[in-house]
Amino acid sequence: MGTTSMRLVCAILFAVICVNHKGILALSQQDVASTGVAPTQIPSQSQSQAQPQTHSQQHLRYHARGNLRHNTALSATPSPAQQHSEIKELMTNLHDRVGVLATLDEDQRHRLEVIDKKMDQLLESSTDRMESLKVQQLNFQQRLDSFEHIQRLTRTTLDELKGETDVFIGSRVARQLRQKQKNRDKLKDLSRQTRQAPEQSPQVAKNMATIFNRQPAAAAAVFNGTQLDVNGRLDALATLLVSLAYNVKETQKNTNIIKRRLAQRGKGQGQSARLPQSSSVGLPTSVDELATSCLQSYLAVKGILKLQLTPESESFYVPCEDDGWTVIMRRSADDLSFERSWLEYREGFGNLAGDFFIGLDKLHALTSSALHELRIVLEDFEGNVAYAGYDAFAISGEREFYTLQLLGQFQDQLVPSAGDSLSYQAGAKFSTFDNDNDNCLECNCAHRHKAAGWFNSCGTSNLMGVYHAQNPSQAGETGIFWDTFQGKNYSLRSVKMLIRPVAQDEARR
Predict the structure, then answer these.
(1) What are the residue ranges of helices labelled H in 170-215?
(2) Overall pTM > 0.85
(3) What are the start-end ranges of the H helices in 36-79?
(4) Which residue has the higher pLDDT, 344 or 163?
(5) Is residue 176 very low, low, confident or very high in pLDDT (cuts 50, 70, 90)?
(6) Which of 39, 408, 433, 478 is most buried, judged by most C-beta within 10 A?
(7) Buried/exposed 254-286: b ≥16 CB within 10 Å, e otherwise
């Protein structure tokens, strides 16, 4: 801008000089006319030699020569009309350049204002996010302190109970030793009880000795040695029996669990559930089935199922519906606000039995474990229900800002259909009021809609907006809307988002 301004000033000065040049020429002509000295009136050499020149005569001679040169220059200058035309053209060009410079300056000023506004928004969002982090850190620190305090109290209480128990019934080590000795004595008593054999007649004993080619005394010695060997093995047998009894108890417990689950499954399917017969008692059926989706809803209790996608991952609870659908979001009242921070949307919030959001981390884990389809159930305040479905759905992780990386084809066979108001936002990143990723330089869609979601310079749906129980038809862009169902200005009564694995048969196996 400095170089441009200097050029502009120089051009203006040049124009002023050109305008004044005409006045200077006119003044010179008037000077020549007033002097009355012709340019050719120069005294001859004889006259100069005859009369010496005075100072005034020399000055008049130099002035006459200057007028002669000036008149010669005037005869070479263009006409006033031509000068006026050139000056006018120069001023026109100068005006055009000044206009272009003004336009560029206005454009740059507008861009700077947009950048300043965006920087203010980023600063505000960063401040909000830092405040949210501070609150989360403070809550975590308070919970940690509370947990440590409870742990200290529990340890103190246990020490006190242990001391009181040791006073009344002796130390724990001594009690364990006494119990082990008592069990060992019982096992020895059981092992030493010999079964009374029936008396054999001398003839029978003789015949047995003849059969085994042994003397009766030798046979008695062998029997006594065997008896001593059996007494040595009874301790190991007793230990095995105790372990077997424990396994039998655990098997009975697992069998009861299987009966209860099969009864629930049979009740849900309208069929009688039968306990499968095990091929071997020593190989019981595994009951610790790993639930990975709501297709295993027969394991759910009151519609809530505990999922563990891999043996190494953490388990979490989800609400299930018929046909293996997992509910990931539910809106039905204004009790729960969905205008929340990035951390809250990452972890999830709400009550699984009411309005809630499952959490972006869990949703990413679910959609990464298997290919899922998406279904959205919408209802207005007149009781009209409509459906929107997509044959594929998946989001990325937090490093990619939970991008809506996979949104399949719209399922128009669902009736009544709500229309497609989500494909416009496919590929968009998730945004909250404290983490703006909506590709809009001049706005913050989360602030505009008072919500969160996958915004692409805002969008055609806002399922996480403000719940408007009063005047829903005039809620505007802050309400819960689906553009192709009742329009953008209508706030819906209830919304439900559900996902289900696509490969149902494989998931059931």
Answers:
(1) 172-192, 202-211
(2) no
(3) 45-50, 55-76
(4) 344
(5) confident
(6) 433
(7) eeeebeebbebeeeeeeeebeeeeeeeeeebee
